[in-house]
Amino acid sequence: MKKKSYSLVVLLVLCLSSIAMQAQVRYKSTRHQLVSAGQISNNYADSLRLFADSLFNSNVKVSSTLTEQDMAPLFLPLAFYRSISHRAFALDKELSPLDTQLLNVYLQRPDMVEVTQSELEEIGPAIAPTTIIEKPTMIVRQMKPEEPEAEPVDLIVLKPNFWNFRGDYYLQFLQNYVSDNWYQGGESNYSMVGSLSLEANYNNKQKVKWDNKLEMKLGLQTATSDSLHKLRTNTDMFRYTGKLGLQASKKWYYTLQVIAQTQFMRNYKANKNETLSDFMSPFNLNLSLGMDYTVDWLNHRLTGTVHFAPLAYNFKYVDRLSLAKRNGITEGNHSLHDFGSQFTMDFRWKFADNISWKTRLYGYTTYKRVEMEWENTLAFQFNKYISTQIFVYPRFDDDRQRDPAHGYFQFKEFISLGFSYSF
């Protein structure tokens, strides 16, 4: 009897111990879940508190209005939004800080992107940007501030910057046509061309102005019809234009202008070793004294200058004596000096945000000979980096040998498509 009683007591103790252990395990699991849920709540509350600080803290720069569309990427899986790439390449759009960060992720960590905008639109419509969260107005009780003690202040005088810098460059493929009597030679072909234009202009707003412009162009082509030269140039220019002006009235300036021009590379005649042009062969320097008229019409869309110079000095030089006669210089001489009159017209007409026309008309005469050039560039900008250009360049020079087909006229044109950028 005692053994049976002892067995029942042991069995009862084991049952109570098992029940207690299960209760303790359930308590710990429930406590862990409560702690985890509490931690998540605390983290979410902290994020909301930081967001509230960004709204109420005046030291934090935030937008005056935030839409649900703006905040949606913060609460959705990392997705590729095509609107960001569209704004990156648009002419009149700027990326927001959020767009910039997402674009960096697309470029550097594409493996982190889970879905695309198209997949999100299939799930459901995008959030319409109708609800606007305005920055709340804080009511602050005004208190009379205590007047601080006067302390010495160091004044810093900033010197104004009168310089303005700009430039543009492009690298494009083109179809090119050159007349047989073009003074630098060349061949019609498919080719590529690169151009770089830099400007540094000074204006102290006190009647003194100094403009500097450096233009460089170089075009290369594969000469399929030339068995001696597999690579030749079709466009080659290195030109500097400088103007020093003293204001005479609101639109007019007394101006001293300098134009210096040559080329980079040597150019040959097709299937011959005969040199048609080379660096410093020819080299042209034109120094003129006259007046400039500043053009600013059509609500700043048509801008430029017109230069009239009744007195001009022209210097022409060839380093190769064999090219003297070809460039209107007496055979056996390296240079030519003459005086005359000169005018230059530089215009830029912006028809639309993505269509522009640049033209340069140059003329010089000694009243015995005339030299004229008219450069025209019509540009179509598809986005910030891709454009197409139509370049038309007629030229007249009666100091050169007359061509039976073209007379004293020369002509050059090309149509190109490629990369371009302005800064």
Uncertain residue segments: 32-37, 60-66, 128-133
Name the structural class.
Answer: alpha+beta
How far the N terminus sits from the C terminus, by CA atoms, comes to 106 Å
Q: Please list the strands of the largest sheet in the order they lie side by side.
A: 5-6-7-8-9-12-13-14-15-16-17-18
Q: What's the assembly state of these chains?
A: single chain
Largest sheet: 12 strands, antiparallel, barrel
Mean pLDDT: 79
> Quick one: how many beta strands?
18
Which descriptor suits the 3D outline? extended
- The run of helices and strands is HEHEHHEHEEEEEEEEEEEEEEE
- Fraction of residues in helix: 10-25%
Count of helical regions: 5
Q: Whole-number radius of gyration?
A: 38 Å
Kindly estimate the percentage of residues that lie in beta strands according to DSSP.
35-45%
